Amino acid sequence: MSGKTILIVEDNEIQREGLAIVLRKAGYDVLPSEEAGDAIATLNRIVAPDLIILDMMMPTPATDGWRFMEERKKYPALYAVPVLIMTAMDAASREWAESLGARGLLRKPAETET
Length: 114
Hints:
The chain has 114 residues and is of the alpha/beta class. The chain has five helices and five strands. The longest helix has 13 residues, at 13-25. The mean pLDDT is 85.
């Protein structure tokens, strides 16, 4: 087991749980969260994870990935955690993700080796 923890912020339950299953099988501990506000609240109660996988598009602006990226700046321990943005937005690029403070970009739907 890796002993590393990954926070998944994804509003789509099927995608969130599917990614969590893959990551758990790979030996990671997973913290699933369905929206940014809930993720911030969770992070205020626990030790920061090793990585955050963040969906940008969520039902309301108050709970989306842009909000999460802004809110995390208020918490030094959280701000140090690397973020990978996961999105289906066609216009998204690695440069765009990095301009928001993320370390990289994952395309949706996520694919795994079989």
